[in-house]
Amino acid sequence: MKDVAWHELDKVKYYGYGTLLFVGVRGLMHPINLVKTRLQVQRGQEVYTGVRHAFRQILKQEGPSGLFKGIFAHQLGLIGRAVYISTFEYLKSKFKEIEHLNNQVSAQQFNAAAMFLAGGASSIISQAVTNPLLVVSERLMVQDGTHRVRAYHGTWHAFRTIYAKEGLRGLYRGYSISLMTFGPNSAIWWSTYGLYMQYAEKVHQLALDPTDTYSSPSLSAVASKLVPQNETLRLLVTQGVGGAIAGTVAAVATNPLDVIRTRMQVTLSVEHHQTTFRHTAKQLLKEDGVRGLGKGLTARVLATAPTSILMIVVYELLKRLSVKS
């Protein structure tokens, strides 16, 4: 199915529908993100032994509301997401305009590189908006749980307290490591997704056109069994699988940086000392060894893969709902 270009969208519809849809998606996935954050911040297994244990303990000690701490600040992150998607679509459209000038690499390689650069750049730009909200959200997530200190009484109190005690630097704590984490994460996500979608298109052609000169009967037979014949279902399945693969690859590749980033942004409010990337990494390796770099990975994949499926399906649906009439 043809991709909907940025200039073809009714922006009022796009941002209106998008806010409603993405609020639901982010709310649904907030509990697993909270668990991931707590697992990354704790020393060793001093509080939780794993994902299931964390869920059980939080429900037992804090009730269902404990799984939704920091959700308001997390939802405010939709502002950053709007910047992210707008930048990504704009850059993608610009790469599309110069695609005809490419005579050095294949179209597939060019598109993968374009998605990599657009995804990375859009994430870096949006972090200027997202970082303060992430700091507040994650500090609210860990209090009363991994850290038995109740420093904040809500989102606005957290903003005011962090700014009063730590200044603007406090709200941008870990900003550099956030750029180092989310920039590559986004670049890897979009390039992986783009490559998969191009591969999936070839599989679709094999399934729908068994007389293709370059296909064999056996390959066409296998492809026809794997690919749904209904166009809408085929698109949803393709996008969902692509989102899950891209999310998993990006999560695994950037998890070590994400552990360090989370600790840098959260620890200061509890231990009241300055933290650096080097100090945080050394402390992590001292406490947990190399295995520490994989802390929260299971929870992160469990959060990222379903979120990626929902996000990309909703995102593509949203673009088609928002086409100018």
Short description:
The chain is an all-alpha fold. The chain contains 11 helices and no strands.
Can you tell me about this structure?
There is one protein chain. The chain has 11 helices and no strands. The two termini are 19 Å apart. The protein is an all-alpha fold and 325 residues long.
Mean pLDDT across all amino acids: 85
Shape: globular
Portion in beta strands: under 5%
Q: Write down the oligomeric state.
A: single chain
Give the SSE order as H and E letters: HHHHHHHHHHH
- The total count of helices amounts to 11
Keywords, please?
single chain, 325 residues, mainly alpha, 11 helices
Would you spell out the secondary-structure blueprint of this structure?
Elements: H1 11-41, H2 51-62, H3 71-76, H4 78-97, H5 107-142, H6 155-171, H7 175-208, H8 217-226, H9 231-271, H10 277-288, H11 297-321
Helix pairs in contact: 1-11, 4-5, 5-6, 5-7, 5-9, 7-8, 7-9, 9-10, 9-11
